[in-house]
Structure to design on (782 residues):
């Protein structure tokens, strides 16, 4: 396991709980939009109506009314035709990753992933000691030729792991053409593809792009969805959707992992989806995060020294910064923390290391004034460290 | 993984949701004693006071006030001196088993366990493909000489897994002398010992026995505690307690497995432990389960044919039945299901098979009249199948 990187991030996150710290480090949603009142009403309704059932053991695959609601939401958002039987409720998408790793991976197996990729995936998968092969990204997503080449070099690869929409850590979104091209290659090689999509509903601008699973004639995609970013993360409610032969095995693996996800949490969410308006809440999140992203982009444009490039995400929680090649983001972090500003150095997101001149900035969890102030402080550090840098 | 046995149990449990079925099959607590009203109040208090915090991501090791309350309860119940730092909150004890397996087990590693043992353990561990070596039990618990012999035969054994109090599936409780003897052997071999104790607080009669962890000078015991049987199982709240070097690694493994256990569930339990009276609820559970156990024992005494032996548990949820050697509990089950009575054949609890003439009966989830009626029907099946059996 990449324990060093994981610990490093934990150390950074420890600092960020101090209220004086301006944190661009975590991936926390804005708590001011958590539907606390709706949840209070849902708790009352669930405990009044079916308290005993909601507190008892329940089936591993998940509460049926919740799986039905998830299938309806997927149909509505993506025209997907998945049935509740194709859905397994998980204790956060992190558990989806753990179960997928258990299903597919053994010592030395090859996993193909974007470069950079989500560190929670490398942490979950590393327990099973696979080999991560990073596939190049450009502005349209995973480079199809690079994937084809990686699959020729590793025809025995067990999985392709992807976050095609508002990627963590880069904020990039794959184009529709790229999705089609990547899925054609995966289909030809019959390699399972994980489509991790925690941020897809948080689009601020631009046109929605089809899911990978919409270019999947052979049923190779296992789709990971979650309520952590559109409802709240504290209940740990997510799902895996995929073909029955995968889901059946994942159900057995989940039974061994935690029997089932909290019955009460599943009932609360089903009640919330039934009686409250999650789409109104998602609209509010989109507006708030768009303002915060704009504040960050404007502050960067105003204050960052030249020679620094960054992404302009159309949604999601993160943007990605590349410093001049000789500048170490870990040094920048050390100096920023002295000025009470935190972020995650980008090197942590490359399973095979390197890229120490990159960093990830989160904009979802700080108000606009703090974002502007934090970027201004970070910019002053960047001016110090890039003095004399080749342009 | 022992998928066949797991599926078999799932099939049986599917039958038992039909209301006309008298089920001795599951291990469900009595829902009529779930503290629904206390939880409604706790939900109101938590969401009013700290709704945003309770719905946000939280630390992997667990909510500190909850870990403090757990440490206090362990001190109170067992004179244990564990600190909140020695405690990791898990998503049910099933997750504790998954994490322990990840920490200790690889392909082919030897796990020593009671014979029979908890099927949820074999399911969690089997993902890592260990070899289960069963150690003989007698009425005082795991036979110390048999353990010593197994450790001589397998000095590289990675774990000893035990449920010393009101064991699932047998209902047996190890004597204090046996606990001391087993721990002396484990200490000499420096082999980690899992003490899984979900039922320890549900004693109806007899004197409490010290924990294995009270005979553990080298800190080899990882103790698994849970709120599933003394509060409710639907929130999936349990813990692992052990030496810091184990707990630190388990925290990292849990981070990869599900980031953390539901923040809301942890806050609800901490509030419940603070403002309600869990000990009064445990007293009520003890009285109820004692009556149900008595009803079952009396019905067995009145109706079972000769040649059948069974345990007389002093607490917990289960008793264990041994039929004459030639009688198959699976055949008995098939006939019982025709009469709407369900139980779990005992063979499922032996990782290496055999013992098809045994069965497990649960008495916690059915009212007394149904227990009497169910045992009477089961007895009629047993009379049919044991006709002509050698005594």
């Amino acid at each position: 396991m990449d324990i060093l990187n994981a610990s490093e991030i934990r150390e950074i996150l420890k600092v960020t709980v101090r209220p004086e710290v301006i944190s661009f480090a975590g991936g926390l949603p804005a708590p001011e939009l958590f539907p606390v009142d709706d949840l209070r009403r849902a708790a009352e309704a669930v405990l009044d109506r079916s308290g005993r059932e909601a507190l008892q053991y329940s089936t591993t695959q998940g509460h049926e009314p919740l799986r039905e609601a998830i299938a309806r939401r997927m149909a509505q958002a993506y025209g997907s035709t998945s049935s509740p039987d194709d859905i397994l409720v998980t204790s956060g998408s992190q558990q989806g990753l753990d179960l997928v790793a258990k299903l597919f991976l053994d010592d030395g197996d090859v996993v193909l992933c974007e470069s950079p990729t989500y560190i929670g995936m490398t942490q979950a998968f590393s327990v099973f000691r696979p080999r991560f092969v990073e596939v190049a990204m450009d502005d349209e997503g995973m480079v199809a030729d690079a994937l084809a080449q990686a699959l020729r070099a590793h025809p025995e690869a067990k999985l392709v792991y992807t976050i095609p929409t508002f990627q963590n850590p880069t904020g990039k979104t794959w184009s529709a053409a790229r999705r089609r091209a990547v899925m054609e290659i995966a289909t030809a090689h019959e390699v399972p593809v994980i489509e991790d999509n925690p941020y897809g509903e948080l689009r601020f601008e631009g046109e929605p792009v089809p899911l990978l699973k919409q270019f999947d004639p052979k049923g190779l995609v296992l789709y990971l969805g979650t309520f952590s970013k559109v409802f709240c993360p504290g209940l740990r409610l997510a799902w895996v959707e995929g073909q029955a032969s995968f889901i059946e095995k994942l159900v057995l693996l989940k039974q061994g992992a935690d029997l089932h996800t909290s019955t009460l949490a599943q009932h609360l969410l089903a009640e919330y989806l039934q009686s409250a308006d999650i789409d109104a809440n998602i609209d509010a999140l989109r507006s708030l995060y768009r303002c915060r992203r704009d504040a960050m982009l404007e502050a960067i444009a105003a204050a960052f020294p030249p020679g620094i490039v960054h992404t302009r995400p159309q949604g999601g929680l993160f943007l990605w910064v590349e410093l001049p090649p000789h500048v170490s983001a870990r040094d920048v972090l050390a100096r920023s923390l002295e000025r009470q500003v935190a972020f995650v150095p980008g090197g942590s997101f490359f399973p095979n290391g390197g890229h120490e001149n990159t960093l990830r900035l989160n904009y979802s969890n700080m108000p606009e004034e703090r974002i502007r102030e934090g970027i201004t402080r970070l910019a002053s550090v960047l001016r110090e460290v890039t003095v004399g840098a080749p342009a």
Summary: The longest strand of chain A covers residues 221-226.
